[in-house]
Amino acid sequence: MTEKRDFKRVLLKISGEALMGDGQYGIDVGTVDRIATEISQARQSGVEICLVIGGGNIFRGLSGAAGGMDRSSADYMGMLATVMNALAMQNALERQDIQTRVLSAIPMTTVCEPYIRRRAIRHMEKGRVVIFAAGTGNPFFTTDTAAALRAAEMNCDALMKGTNVDGVYSADPRIDSTATRFDTLSYLDVLSKDLKVMDASAVSLSRENNIPIVVFSIQSNGAFLKVLEDNGNCTIISET
């Protein structure tokens, strides 16, 4: 995919678990600072960046529902967890002199701005990193789907999925040493093979809007910038 060097605006999706570091729960400040450095390097290269961060390091709606909670209530609690993560990332970025705005799908004007599409685009045009919090603002939708939705609304050139491994594998490479990494996949490959990259709604939404999904390791220093510059390991999911 040679046009990858021409990416002008991307959405970075990070799981909440990526912020835990070596911990089992919560936010590891050192890990957040390291990821903020990755984002800062990419932003300084001239790429416009927006983010969606999951909330699984604090609360996961599906787990709460499985434990007997009402699914809608559990999902709303998960959305609030994403706001906490967004504020942590905003703080880390601004300590590196990167202007950042948090826009929440659930209005909470004391701590962040409400999500308004045109306002978000204007923030990015001014060079600010925009973090979208609270998912889509609706229960029964994951932050993966929120990421695909915001990437489409922001007219992003790609949805960058930062994970713990450097792409999509035929099996979990941390468990199966024979797992092979795919350089490219089609959207239909991901759906038909039930590859656990993003949920089916997110993949389908990306397909409908022709937004490539780029899967890479957010745990490797400098990987985000390298992938944007076509120098890093990743798997690209697109129409062909």
UniProtKB/TrEMBL annotation:
Main subcellular location: cytoplasm
Gene coding for it: pyrH
Pathway: Pyrimidine metabolism; CTP biosynthesis via de novo pathway; UDP from UMP (UMPK route): step 1/1
Assembly and interaction partners: Homohexamer.
Catalytic function, reaction form: UMP + ATP = UDP + ADP
Keywords, in A-Z order: ATP-binding, Cytoplasm, Kinase, Nucleotide-binding, Pyrimidine biosynthesis, Transferase
Gene Ontology MF terms: ATP binding; UMP kinase activity
The keyword Cell membrane is annotated on this UniProt entry: no
Name of the protein: Uridylate kinase
Similarity field: Belongs to the UMP kinase family.
Domain of life of the organism encoding this protein: Bacteria
Residues at which ATP binds: 13-16, 56, 60, 163-164, 169, 172
Described function: Catalyzes the reversible phosphorylation of UMP to UDP.
Entry EC number(s): 2.7.4.22
Group of enzyme by EC: transferase
One of the Pfam families matching this protein, by short name: AA_kinase
Biological source species: PS1 clade bacterium
GO cellular component, one term: cytosol
Regulation: Inhibited by UTP.
Protein location: Cytoplasm
Binding site for UMP: 55, 75, 136-143
GO terms for biological process, alphabetical: 'de novo' CTP biosynthetic process; UDP biosynthetic process
Span of domain Aspartate/glutamate/uridylate kinase: 8-217
